[in-house]
Amino acid sequence: MVTETIITFLQRAVVQGIPLLYGSTGEILTEKSGNLNLGIPGIMYVGGISGVIGSFLYEQSLESTASINPVLAVLIPILCSIFGSLIMGLIYCFLTVSLRANQNVTGLAITTFGVGFGNFFGGSLVKLTDSEVPSVALTATSNFFRKTLPIADDTGWFGDIFLSYGFMTYLAIIIAIVCAVFLKRTRGGLHLRAVGENPATADAAGINVERSKYLATCIGSVIAGLGGLYYVMDYACGVWSNEGFGDRGWLAIALVIFAIWKPDMSIPGSILFGGLYIIYLYIPGLALRTQELIKMLPYVVTIIVLIISSMRNKKENTGPAALGLSYFREER
Question: Can you tell me the distance from the alpha carbon of 113 to that of 242, in angstroms, rounded to the nearest whole number?
Answer without folding.
Answer: 14
